Amino acid sequence: MKKKYFINANIVDPKNSINENGGLIINEEGKIEAIGKKVNTNNLPSREKPIDLKGKHILPGLVDMRVFVGEPGYEYKENFRTLSEAALAGGVTSVVTMPNTNPVIDDVSIVDFLKRRGRDKSKINIFPCASLTENLEGKNMTEFGLLQSKGIIAFTDGLKTIQNTRLMTRIMNSAFDLDSLIMQHAEDYELSKNGMMNSGIIATKLGLSGIPAVAEKIIIERDLTLLETIKCRYHISQLSSSRSVQTIRERKDKVKFTSGVSINNLSLNENDIGDFRTFLKLSPPLRTEEDRLSLVQAVKDEIIDVIVSDHKPEDEESKRLTFSQAATGASGIETLLSLCLELYHNGSVKLETIVKTLTSNPAKILKINKGNLSIGNNADFCIVDIDKPWIVKKENLISKSKNTAIEGKKLQGKVTNTFVNGVELFKL
């Protein structure tokens, strides 16, 4: 590999407290040799022709902590190859995959298969999760120690919640003993049973059963109470309401935990569902504008640690049904960064804070050396034109399933290039 020189870029790397105009040098091994304002035309060999980025931004490769991939079992929705191509188009170089596959990722033999497929078919870094319970049934714990030794990075039941408090206590104790990360999707089943969207006036008008915000708050309160005595690594996958935000604000200084939010809940609210738009049937559901603003404020205040795409590909046959029958979820890995930049452009959140929630924060939670531009690290980064306008059109999306929640939306900011290990794998 030949050395690469980039100059005249705006570099944002929260991990190393870099937010300045400068350049980047990648060595022959695909690692970062130098970075920052000291890299400029005056300091480069005269024979070299650097790439002038003309003020575009260089950001660390994004780390998406919540991604559903169809492999194994649902390859017709998404596979590792299409996922990695879609991720690269969105500047994402590392993903954490959910265990909701067929078969479920709850056994060592499946982990071996998954890692092999991820290595052979994917161009990005794949970090698989295993399920908390066997077959996602919420009854018996999986073998945390054995699965972790095979490379499992965290444990979650994905779209399901551990309802049994006794079982949750056992899970937390095991996680503490083994230093495992637990990621919980917070939703009380009895309160949310048969629910399809946020409980409120709009649900009543549409004649749809609602999911109250308190269903999320109850599980969070329970788990954080357990966490007071069992101090394991615990992460709330996605917050969706102002009630939940209030809870974590109150508990943040008393209990050690982290939390995330889906970009869907930061960008959309229940009004966007309109006349039964099934592509906006999500879990957790879109809630009120007040809830959305509360979540944005929590990101701004760095109360919420991570923003995720919650990328869940579904084929058209699963979505073009009645609202009650339609599958839950939206494809979103390609549009994650652009939607986040909306918060920057409208003055809601600083750019550095946004980048932090997408790179160094998830990497820190996962204990992986990604999401930064440290010297000596693999050169995983993306180049972004943060002012470039574009319109989301499903036919232009790379993901195998086109179930985007933001069809036709005008965005500002687009990834133009993505590099993994110093190799350019995406170019607009």
Could you characterize what this model shows?
The chain is α/β, with parallel strands linked by helices. The chain folds into two domains: 4-58 and 378-427, Urease, subunit C, domain 1, CATH 2.30.40.10; 62-366, Metal-dependent hydrolases (TIM Barrel, Alpha-Beta Barrel), CATH 3.20.20.140. Helices cover 29% and strands 23% of the residues. It contains 14 helices and 18 strands. Strands 1, 2, 3, 4, 5, 16, 17 and 18 form an eight-stranded mixed beta sheet that branches. Strands 6-7-8-9-10-13-14-15 form an eight-stranded parallel beta sheet, sandwiched between helices. A two-stranded parallel sheet has the order 11-12. Helix 4 crosses helix 7, helix 7 (214-227) packs parallel to helix 8 and helix 8 runs parallel beside helix 10 (289-300). The longest helix has 14 residues, at 108-121. It is globular, with a radius of gyration of 21 Å. The relative contact order is 0.16. The mean pLDDT is 95.
Defining traits:
about 425 residues; alpha/beta; Urease, subunit C, domain 1; TIM Barrel; 8-stranded mixed beta sheet; 8-stranded parallel beta sheet; 14 helices; 18 strands; about 30% helix; globular
